[in-house]
Amino acid sequence: GWLEAVTQQMGYHPQYLDSFLKMQHYLMHMDGPLPFDCRHYIAIMAAARHQCRYLVNLHVLQFLRAGGDPQWLRGLEFIPPKLRNLNEINKILAHRPWLITKEHIEKLLKISEWSWSLAELVHAVVLLAHCHALASFVFGCGCEQDEGLGGRGSLKPLSLGNQCFCEATAGNSYSQELLRINRKRSLDSCMELDSLRERMQRIHVETEGRDEMRLLQQDREEGEGQGAEVGMQGGTEHCSDPSAGLSPLADTDGEVTGATNLACYMQDPDFGYQDFARRDEDQTQVFRVQDYSWEDHGFSLVNRLYSDIGHLLDEKFRMVDGLQSSAMAKRQGCEPSVFKRGIWNYIHCMFGIRYDDYDYAEVNQLLERMLKVYIKTVTCYPEKTNSEMFDRFWKQFKHSEKVHVNLLILEARMQAELLYALQAITQYMI
């Protein structure tokens, strides 16, 4: 189902899950500046930066259901230049958001056939930050798996005794509504499956036909020019195999498999996180929250350019801040608010965001080494998260506390990316 593994983990904190689903639904499915197919394609581009097959597969299906052009699934070379131009800030926001500048914004907004409007760009930025942060949660909670959409996870799905997730939350009116929606979606999916399968098979047949013609053409060219270098060999940054990215094909059981080659959805795959270094002060300035904060600056800007999204984001930030973690904090010998702030500020510190009223010596006192290693990995390069990290770090935490840590990572990371992007947009506007 749509984000089923994610919502099962978030189900340990139902109030947060409620705010998350409202924001997710508004961002992907309600009226907004961007067309629905473009929203899902942007999500694919964002998730691919972290090799998050789980999210890419889900958004490939949603992209097709929204009427997206199947050719786009062959990679960035096959999408409109306007969307492809988003690749640079996708890359920067995902790995080194402090590098984004007003020049990046200006380049996208400049008057041309492929220019973005401010409203469209804000929608895209929120989508990118949301999907990058959600990829951290997916890897952090073990929702990512090798094959299919169901699956294996490093953290086991919610189970209370012999109860399943559905039964355990039966007393919660929101959860009842969620179950009703999920059942309806399951029925809708069944009804859609036949037409989707036909469409995928048609794409497969068309692609095979084109590939056959391409191979014949290549054979002719090789026959005519033996000994000459092949100009296209390894010459593309995306996928050299024209059908490599077009792999969401329905198998005989009706299961739809996802993109096998995530590299075709990104450029510069070697660009990744690097420690925010103070020694580069001439190039990179520390981001001081008293100069530009979510509450005083980011919220009003994003809400003005993309109506109501600011309220939904703000509710989510407040909800994660209000989650109870008394047992988790008690084991660290501090108040819950102090422990949560330590995690939040540590994450922001890794992205060069500093709070003048915070003593950063507290981070080392509150967070033991393995917890810091885990948080940094899930935040900065989630695709490197492995089972050994779970085994060494998770021992003293309850399952709901593990999810809580991952929710803090999700929200702190998302806010960090938004702060840098919105500040750059503000500087462009000024």
From TrEMBL:
GO terms for molecular function: L-leucine binding; oxidoreductase activity, acting on peroxide as acceptor. It catalyses: a hydroperoxide + L-cysteinyl-[protein] = S-hydroxy-L-cysteinyl-[protein] + an alcohol. Keywords: Cytoplasm, Oxidoreductase. GO terms for cellular component: cytoplasm; nucleus. GO terms for biological process: cellular response to L-leucine; cellular response to leucine starvation; negative regulation of TORC1 signaling; positive regulation of macroautophagy; regulation of response to reactive oxygen species. The keyword Magnesium does not apply. Signal peptide: none annotated. Gene3D superfamilies: AhpD-like. It is found in: Cytoplasm. The keyword Cytoplasm applies. Residues 225-234 have a biased composition (Gly residues). Residues 222-241 are annotated as: Disordered. Belongs to the sestrin family. This is SESN3 protein.
